[in-house]
Amino acid sequence: MDLAEIVMLFLSFIVGLGVGTIFYVGLWWTILRRFSSNHFALWWWSSFIVRIVVTASVFYLIANEHVARYALILLGFMLSRKIVLTMKTSG
Question: 10 pLDDT exceeds 80?
Answer without folding.
Answer: yes
